[in-house]
């Protein structure tokens, strides 16, 4: 969906990077390496998104760091659009809400870092989950969002988990 509206693949990658999680930051060379793109194509898109006010930049030593502009009037809509593009909204709808006993869901790994790798890793904090039913729901979600889904279930949140909370009671 997002790649149909926005024809620049580099721009789509940048939007995914910066709007999956508010704290994601990046700099030109690091983003070019991460996306396996030329620094010139990344620079052009960073400049366009910065000029539009969608991204903000700050100097950190000799490097210029970019992040999402949380004060932009379309910030919330951009986050929602990226979540829909990645299928996170459907994942929450199909898997988490139908299980019933889930207290919290956290996306970890590549997607929490804003990298569309094709595999969504998630931790569920829940009790008394029917693993067979969870496996069925995961398969159903994978078909809908066209991405691999890996889920681990814990009764209590493990220490030191860093990621993007997509569901919390």
Automatic annotation (TrEMBL):
Positions of transmembrane segments: none
Looking up CDD domains in the UniProt record yields: HTH_ARSR (cd00090)
Q: What is this protein called?
A: Winged helix-turn-helix transcriptional regulator
What is the organism field in this record? Echinicola arenosa
């Amino acid at each position: 969906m997002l790649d149909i509206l926005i024809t620049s693949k580099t721009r789509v990658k940048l939007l995914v990077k910066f709007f999956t999680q508010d704290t994601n930051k990046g700099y030109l060379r690091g983003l070019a390496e991460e996306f396996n793109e030329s620094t010139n194509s990344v620079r052009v898109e960073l400049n366009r998104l910065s000029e539009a006010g969608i991204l903000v930049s700050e100097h950190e030593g000799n490097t210029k760091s970019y992040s999402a502009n949380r004060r932009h009037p379309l910030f919330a809509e951009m986050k929602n659009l990226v979540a829909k593009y990645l299928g996170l909204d459907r994942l929450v709808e199909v898997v988490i809400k139908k299980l019933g006993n889930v207290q919290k869901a956290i996306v970890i790994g590549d997607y929490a870092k804003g990298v569309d790798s094709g595999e969504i890793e998630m931790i569920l904090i829940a009790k008394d989950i029917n693993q067979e039913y969870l496996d069925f729901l995961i398969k159903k979600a994978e078909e809908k969002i066209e991405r691999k889904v890996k889920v681990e279930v814990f009764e209590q949140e493990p220490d030191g988990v860093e990621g993007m909370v997509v569901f919390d009671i």
